[in-house]
Amino acid sequence: MASSDSHSGPPLQLVLSRSTAAVASDADVVRGLIHKEEWAAVALWSRYGSLVFRIADRALGSRHEAEDLTQDVFLCVLGKIAGLRDPAALRSFVVSVTIRTLKWKLRRKRVRQWVQLTSTGDLPDQPVNGVDVDETLRRFYRLLDKLRADDRLVFVLRRVDGMKLEDVGRATGHSLATVKRRLTRADAELAHWMEREPVLMTFLRNEGGTQ
Amino acid sequence: MIRDDESRATPDPSVAKLAELARGQLGEMSDLQKARGLHGVVTNLGQVHLHSSRVHRRRFWLATAGAVTALGVVAWLFGPTLVANKPLTYAMTQGEIQAGGYFRSGLTAQPTIRFSDGTKVDLMANARGRIASVDAHGARVTLDEGEAHVEVVPRAEARWQFDAGPFVVRVQGTAFALAWKGDEGRLDLRLDKGAVTVTGPLSGEAIALRSGQWLTVRLPAREVFVRDFDRAAPPALSGATTVGSTPVVSAAQLAGPVPVPAPVVTAASTQPKARRPARVASVHSADAEISWAPARAAGDWNRILDLATQRGLARTLAERGSEDLALLADAAHYLRRDDIAQQALLAQRQRFAGSTRAKDAAFLLGRIVEAKSGGAREALDWYERHLDEAPSGTYASEALGRKMTVLARLHGDAAARPVAEAYLRRYPGGTYARAARAYTK
């Protein structure tokens, strides 16, 4: 058996100037992306990767789907970056692409429900087993699946992500009044459906305990 | 709790509590997800670039530089302080590493090289190579001949490189089997977990592989293959290294009965070899991914259907990956092309047999045929298949409910009673429970 200390080679070289990506403004990043400079892609990801993932994960309730969607968002951003009129509005642009991509994803999920919905329009139930946080969230997101895609986005951005209503409006392209109307409808529908979800109610009564 | 001073509406306390639970539990990326995401963005930047200008398509180094940058910046982002750390240490079981980092396995002994971060390299019989360099983030390992099974422990700052002949495999956290046969000029890489990029002759640009894919490159024949394999029963690399000019992996070793399209292989094998570009027969080549991703990202159902049919539906069904087949089925159904949706689902079952999507496809096929006139019997068959294959799957309750309904329609309420009883036992509060109780009375 040989120890490795004597076999250590020289460290591999880093190929990125750390300062470049760290100090660049959003406008610089946009210009860098238009010129296909890798540092700009790194800066884009380091600034907005977590933001996009967070919105996606909370909207979808699935880490895997959120990861895939995050990649879709960045692919779309890279493809359309040259058309961004105000390079300083990169954050808004990324968020709007995220919301648009999420809408598509959620609509697709609703299309999928053509096979899941029963004649009554209800979602099928799962076996009633022990309930933990994961199971509770899964059931909660199944209820979210029943919401209209736009209502769901508004609900998630406001209630889960904590965005201000005005920001939700800007992100989704709705007026403030529309955002409030959608939010009220989503709240009411979820509250109504939850009454028919004894497992969720049990979890809430037990404050996270196992049934 | 979020203050709701902008709105008079206050959510139901239960809803608010669940929203808070979701906020606390969801939204955090793991380090590995960050690394994968960064790698994807940098790689996509190169691909967008390639698409925007054909001139740059020849610039092989760009994609390579992107991959290198991705690996480099992972360390920059997540572990800059570790740059100055001590290099990893390593040791070899059942053998000894010679001066200069050279190693070799025997005919029977299959030694393992273990690194101090937990990464290990299992050498198969008669493998030889060299540990060319080591630093705090990983190592560069050269496989001169033979086969090695590698498990790189995922770390955000990890940078590993494996050279096999003229090929370079760049790795973050992953598990794969790598084989190089110098006399045949043949590379095989079976990616069990994670993601890698491979650069070298023929490919023209970095080939990005994801888990479940198998890359084979044969230099003399100028052939490059990327295909999916069944991760539940990964085929042995050694079984694929002795074939001649026939497709490099036998159909039996692939996940489903649909092999790589023969014409592609044949054409590449019979054309003159001088200065002929390599052909890539790919289930999920980078090029193929690019062509669908924008449409997927834009939510363009029509575009997806167009892309699927433009390149030939049969070819699409034979070559696209599992996710794309599911996407195509959804798009086709949305556009009222259930004939295509049905074919996509059947291809899913055939090529990715045993996968969750294939099991789900059985149920989805049942729903399609049930909607057709006279399709009830066939639907029943599909529902039963789904219940056999995925008794606790996503659609299990729905399949049982549909089975009950179809049985009642075909053979009367009495025939549906046993299924109704089973349904009530499993889903007493289910959406078919009321109907099930009616059948049991």
Compute the separation of the termini of chain A in Å. 54 Å
What is the ordering of alpha helices and beta strands of chain B? HHHEEEEEEEEEEEEEEHEHHHHHHHHHH
Taking pLDDT < 50 over at least 5 consecutive residues as the criterion, the unreliable ranges of chain B are 1-8, 49-65, 78-84, 239-290
Strand content of chain B: 15-25%
SS summary, helix count of chain B:
14
Beta content of chain A: under 5%
| Broad shape of chain B | elongated
Protein chain pair with the most extensive contact, residues per chain: A-B, 92 and 93 residues
- Mean pLDDT of chain B, to the nearest integer, reads 73
> What low-confidence regions of chain A span 5 or more consecutive residues with pLDDT below 50?
1-21, 115-131
Radius of gyration of chain B: 26 Å
State the assembly state of the protein chains. heterodimer
What is the helix fraction of residues of chain A, given as a range? 55-70%
Total count of strands of chain B: 15
Structural class of chain A: mainly alpha
Radius of gyration of chain A: 22 Å
Helix content of chain B: 40-55%
Quote the distance from N terminus to C terminus of chain B.
49 Å
Total of DSSP H or I helical runs spanning 4+ residues of chain A: 10
Basic shape of chain A: elongated
What's the SSE blueprint?
The complex is a heterodimer of chains A (211) and B (441).
Chain A: H1 18-23, H2 26-34, H3 38-60, H4 63-80, H5 90-116, H6 133-146, H7 149-160, H8 165-172, H9 176-194, H10 198-205
Helix pairs in contact in A: 2-3, 3-4, 3-5, 4-5, 7-8, 7-9, 8-9
Chain B: H1 13-25, H2 31-52, H3 60-78, E1 90-93, E2 102-104, E3 112-115, E4 120-123, E5 128-134, E6 139-152, E7 160-164, E8 167-171, E9 174-181, E10 186-193, E11 195-199, E12 207-210, E13 213-218, E14 223-228, H4 262-270, E15 279-282, H5 286-298, H6 301-310, H7 313-319, H8 322-334, H9 338-351, H10 356-370, H11 376-389, H12 396-411, H13 413-426, H14 433-440
Parallel strand pairs in B: 6-7, 14-15
Antiparallel strand pairs in B: 1-3, 2-5, 3-4, 4-6, 5-6, 6-9, 7-8, 8-11, 9-10, 10-13, 11-12, 13-14
